[in-house]
Design brief:
The complex is a heterodimer of chains A (366) and B (187). By secondary structure, chain A is of the alpha/beta class. Chain A has 11 helices and 19 strands. Chain A has one domain: 4-Layer Sandwich (Metallo-beta-lactamase, Chain A), CATH 3.60.15. The chains are: A alpha/beta (366), B mainly beta (187).
């Protein structure tokens, strides 16, 4: 069940425990990429490290890049530990973060971030880890549309976003946040909608993969999926595998992506997202996606875990004041795709682990 | 004054030096202490502190090794004390008209995060100005034992109130950011 892929086998493992996303890619010859990170719900260790160790892969040697598509909390859980463990990997993040203002904001805010988990704190850990590498250091690489991020033999990893316009918008927003730090200190809430996610195009021989990160559609032809779809630098191939952006939400949907960048009826995966009782994908999102492919999968369902049991006095007090608590749904949720990288491309072999389901079944277990 | 031979994990109370702004005459203030493990190695550490003692606000006194025989004024504590049953750290992610939504991290026992919908009326007037997305708060449910022997079950939400940024702090953050940038080779 959990064996390392063959040297010439491509693997795309999508993990999503209902709040969090991480993608691990094996591009052949023990070259691995980590795209975002989330925490294992039981051990609270970063999922990519847990998985790599489970299949006997040494992250220090095998991981070539750790890519942070954006700094929302659900994509960055444990990323600091991942960078610390992947000592020979380059760190890649959005070009929008390549500013003095962002670094200053992280330095200023991280001591006041929430105690245990926060995107700012993770970013600070990443920066300190990179700074502490000394002579072995590799400066971060910054992703912007149409930039090649990594290449080796028949493999290439290219960023399709963020666009120049999106980077400028984000930098202005970061600068505004720094200058507007008035009033009492508080945590940093990541901006929304997300124009700055790093969308990745990965090619291994004849096989292409599109990872949509959390990029949203803004209606502005200079940003978001419109910019990606209208780019003059489309890759010549079409992707056979698609990580559906932003948890399948309609705000990240652009029909042109399905026609221009993807093969018909592609393999696809998404990670559900839940917060404050809201759940993505909605039923309508599921219908929309399933009308475009019948080979879509989700890493988890909308099943709510049972409430935690607490002392009777605590339960009574919560009830008396009219508050409601619900556990954040979690599972390890893992969709694994594998195919051969050599010869004529074959269909992806799909394996579903620990709560992952075909997308059609994401609402069936309520 | 009473003579008392203290045992390990015994608690005791000491009448502090009189203070000019001390308590009312009929409600003397006593500091509470306990014998530290430095002096008595316990057979079983779990016996050292009950949950109630753990959560009682008190000062601790170190007793010199030979001085196990102490002259102490033994008296029940006259302070209210709070026994926490459950603590969370929360971060607000949405504020609605009558409730706010928050993500909670359990500080009492490890476990997966939770989300809460909490009535705004639970927030004190003093803290209302802090109630906005990104604000960090602490929610504590427990028993308040009053010095009159009453026990009340209470819920308290306190928002973390940090002073505003100063120019000096931002300057320091900027300098540190530049130092890290150079260390990373990030030009």
């Amino acid at each position: 069940m959990y064996a390392a892929p063959d040297p010439d086998e491509i693997e795309v493992s999508v993990f999503g425990p209902s709040y969090g996303e991480c993608i691990l890619l094996h591009l052949g010859e023990n070259n691995w990429l980590v795209v975002d990170s989330c925490l294992d719900p039981d051990s609270q260790e970063p999922v990519p490290l847990v998985y790599l160790r489970r299949i006997g892969v040494d992250p220090a040697q095998a991981v070539k890049q750790v890519i942070a598509t954006h700094w929302h909390d659900d994509h960055i859980g444990g990323l600091g530990q991942v960078v610390e463990a992947c000592t020979s990997a380059e760190f890649v993040c959005s070009d929008a973060l390549k500013t003095e203002e962002f670094l200053t904001l992280v330095q200023a805010v991280h001591p006041h971030a929430m105690m245990r988990r926060s995107g700012v704190r993770e970013f600070h850990t990443v920066l300190m880890s990179l700074a502490g590498r000394g002579a072995r250091r590799l400066a971060p690489k910054f992703a912007i549309a149409d930039r090649m991020l990594w290449q080796s033999g028949r493999c290439s990893v290219c960023a399709l976003s963020p666009s120049d316009a999106a980077v400028l918008l984000a930098r202005r927003e970061i600068a505004d946040r720094l200058t507007n730090q008035t009033g009492t200190k508080k945590g940093l809430v990541a901006p929304s909608p997300n124009h700055n996610s790093v969308v990745l195009w990965i090619a291994v021989g004849e096989v292409s993969i599109l990872l949509g990160a959390d990029l949203e559609e803004t209606g502005n032809p200079g940003t978001g999926w419109s910019e990606v779809a209208h780019s003059r630098y489309h890759p010549s191939q079409k992707a056979s595998l698609f990580k559906i952006p932003h948890h399948g939400s309609s705000s990240a949907d652009n029909p042109q992506v399905w026609t221009d960048l993807l093969e018909p009826n592609p393999f696809a995966a998404l990670t559900p997202w839940t917060l404050g009782g809201a759940f993505l994908p909605t039923r309508r999102d599921v219908d929309r996606i399933c009308s475009r492919t019948d080979r879509a999968y989700a890493t988890a369902t909308n099943r709510q875990p049972g409430s935690r049991r607490r002392a009777r006095g605590v339960e009574r007090t919560i009830s008396e004041i009219g508050a409601t608590l619900r556990p954040v749904p979690y599972s390890r949720g893992h969709v694994r795709f594998r195919t051969q990288s050599l010869g004529v491309p074959t269909e992806w072999q799909v394996d579903l682990f620990e709560g992952a389901v075909p997308l059609r079944q994401v609402y069936l277990s309520r | 004054m009473n003579a008392l031979l203290l045992q390990r994990s015994d608690t005791f109370y000491i009448d502090p030096q009189p203070k000019s702004e001390g308590p009312q005459q009929n409600e003397p203030l006593y500091y509470k202490g306990e014998i530290k493990t430095d002096f008595f190695q316990p057979d079983d550490e779990s016996g050292l502190k009950s949950e109630e003692e753990e959560n009682t606000v008190h000062s601790q006194f170190r007793v010199p090794r030979p001085s196990v025989l102490l002259l102490l004024k033994i008296t029940p504590s006259k302070q209210n004390h709070f026994i926490s049953l459950q603590k969370w750290e929360g971060i607000v992610f949405k504020v609605k008209k009558e409730v706010f939504l928050a993500k909670l991290v359990d500080l009492t026992q490890e476990g997966p995060d939770e989300e809460a919908e909490i009535p705004i009326e639970e927030v004190s007037e003093d803290d209302l100005d802090l109630l906005q997305p990104g604000a960090v708060f602490y929610w504590n449910i427990g028993y308040l034992n009053s010095h009159r022997g009453q026990r009340l079950r209470t819920s308290g939400i306190r928002f973390r109130r940090l002073p505003a940024w100063t120019e000096e702090e931002l300057h320091k953050a900027r300098s540190e950011a530049m130092r890290i940038r150079d260390l990373m080779g990030w030009k």
